Amino acid sequence: MSAGSSSWLARRRASGRKALLATLILLAAVASAFPLVWMVLSSLKTPAESMQVPPVWIPHTPSIEAYEKVSGVVNVGRSMWNSLVIASITTAGVLVTSMMAGYAFAKYHFPGRSLLFSVLIATMFLPPIVTLIPLYRLVGSIGLNASLAGIIVPNLANAFGIFLMRQFIAGVPDDLIDAARMDGASELLILFKIVAPSVAPAIAALALFAFVYHWNSYLWPLTVLQGNADAYPIVISLSRLLSYNRGAVNTGLVMAGATLAVLPPLILFVFLQRFFVDSIVGSAIKG
Amino acid sequence: MIQRYRASAGIMLAPAVTLIGIFILLPMLLTVWLSFQDWSTQTSFSSASFIGLDNFREIFGPTSVGRDFTGALTNTAIYTALSVALILPLSVAFGLMVYQHDVAGGTALRTVLFSTYMVPMIAVALVWSKLYSPSEGPLNQMLGLIGVGPQPFLSSPRSALISIVFLNVWQQVGYFTVLAIAGLTQIPGSLYEAAKLDGANRFEQFRFITLPLMRRTLLFSAVIAIINAVQVFEPVALITQGGPVGSTNVLTYHIHRVGIERAQGGLGSAMAVMLMLSLIVVVCALFALANRKDQE
Asked: What CATH number is associated with residue A102?
């Protein structure tokens, strides 16, 4: 009898705990999602709805009027194209340089290997502001300032990519590589035809990281472009919208702009989040 | 054979090493060198002239240059401390919520939390400057619903910096939650079984198993959170421009303003060197502390 009632109590307490946990999870998710949900909802409101008191949370008749107006304030097409060019070319460069260097660190023995690797990895922890001033001058002196090339070229290699690739390429069996060498394949051919396919998920993760990072990057493009608006990526163009943020009348316009900037990285994330999460976990545990 | 692979190693490493050498390592050395020079960012490096420690004397001196810099250093220290103090406990709490099997919705929570990490800062700035708006912002409207009066958020020097901290925590906590989950998966389930048999309750299990075994993960998270926090630039540049009355003037923003906008390259480099040194000291102290705890 007493055993029965105590297990009943334990079950009661367990279900109470579950209810509490479910509530906490729901609260956390709602709090985290709220700003972005509010952004999308507001972008679909008409100016009249934005100004209504008490506020309307969900637009009655969703309208894309605000999205059409953004193009009148910001050159959306041009800026999106610039962002796409910057993020794609940089990502391609990062992939090639990281795979090559990662392969060398994982599969070759050469004098000074661990020292060179440590020096490169140390740059991963260096805040970009520490090198910004001389880098700005350096890029200017080779004639690349105020251009897309100036944004792209200094970012074509990074320590995180090399680190990630070395971690994963180290797991590729040496036998596989030796067999290809016996067949007379060149080292570059081995890397891109044999090693690359066996670490494809890591390459996908690095590509996504690099693309999103350089799509979102702000400080360096702002610095190097020196106000050349033709080369502005979308994240810089949209800063014009901040001056529309006074008063409620333009809320829809501002939020439509914000939504446009969020969409490309968020779409990539939704489809490929497994790679993101796995590679963060991989780099944290193996590191 | 060995000789052949040494040549291959050179070819494989050349692109990355050259790029990182020219665009990261060389500028880093130049920053250190420039910190001892009188140099305008608009002139060539050769026009720099050696002035010893004058730049450092000036940024710690009694003039407005010194006051602005030490103010920015203090703001960055406060900002960093608050960020780490919020991010670490939240990431563990969220990590525990995601990494449990009793209640559904954990994975969905991870997706929602991590998705904010993908959002470009310009969008974060546009959205949050509106959320924080004192008159028509949704945050004050919601506070009004529960009977709390309107908060000034970004418009008061007392609350502007912490408001920027909240915005950054919101954006980044998902990344640290994923790190925390990685740490949690490393803890053997058998430890909890053993503790349960010994009659340990959930709090005791957390206190004596989870936390101690998460120490390495938390150390890693703390280092990354600190390095991220000293880099905060966009919300300040976009929303507050360092104000009101300098309360959100953080180092990255200040160095950019001095070294790029005002072209005082020598002064800006001295500030960057101080930032780097402070970061090294803090991270070393953190590791020393963790090692001492390990030995206990």
From this structure: 1.10.3720.10
A68 found inside a domain: no
Query: Are residue A177 and residue A263 in the same domain, yes or no?
Result: yes
Report the pLDDT averaged over residues A206-224: 93
Residues of chain A in contact with residue B166, where contact means CB-CB under 8 angstroms, are: none
The CATH class of the B53-295 domain is mainly alpha
Burial class (CB in 10 A: 0-12, 13-18, 19+), A20: exposed
**Which A residues in the span 158-197 are in contact with B, Cβ-Cβ below 8 Å?**
158-159, 162, 187-188, 191
Find which of A118, A130, A222 to mutate to test the B interface (most B CBs within 10 Å of its CB): A130
Nearest CA in chain B to A125: B227
ipTM of the complex: 0.91
pLDDT for the residue B143? 84
A203 touches chain B (CB under 8 A): no
Taking residues A171-193, what's their average pLDDT? 91
The predicted structure's pLDDT at residue A287: 42
> Is position A55 within any domain?
no
Instruction: Look at residue A2 in the predicted model and tell me its pLDDT.
Output: 47
Shared domain for A36 and A161, answered yes or no, is no
Where exactly are the structural domains of chain B? 53-295
Which residues of chain B are under the pLDDT cut of 70?
Answer: 1-4, 296
- The C-alpha atoms of residue B7 and residue B5 are separated, in whole angstroms, by 5
Total number of domains constituting chain A:
2
| CA separation for the pair B170, B261 (Å, rounded) | 30
Given a contact cutoff of 8 angstroms between Cβ atoms, the answer to whether B143 and B257 are in contact is no
- Report pLDDT digits (tens) over B229-241: 999 999 999 999 9
Of residues A1 and A140, the one with the higher pLDDT is A140
Residue in chain B nearest A113 by alpha carbon: B9
- Residue A61: inside a domain, yes or no? no
Q: What is the pLDDT of residues B63-105, one digit of tens each?
A: 999 999 999 999 999 999 999 999 999 999 999 998 887 788 8
A112: left (phi over 0), alpha (psi -120 to 50) or beta: left
CA A127/CA B245 separation, integer angstroms: 26
* Chain A residues 74-103 within an 8 A CB cutoff of chain B: 96-98, 100-101, 103
Domain limits at A31? 2-43
Distance from the B87 Cα atom to the nearest Cα atom in chain A, whole angstroms:
14
State the Cα–Cα distance between residues B84 and B222, nearest whole angstrom.
6
Q: Given this model, what pLDDT does residue B92 score?
A: 95
- Find residue B92's DSSP bridge partners: none
Contact A235 B276 (CB under 8 A): no
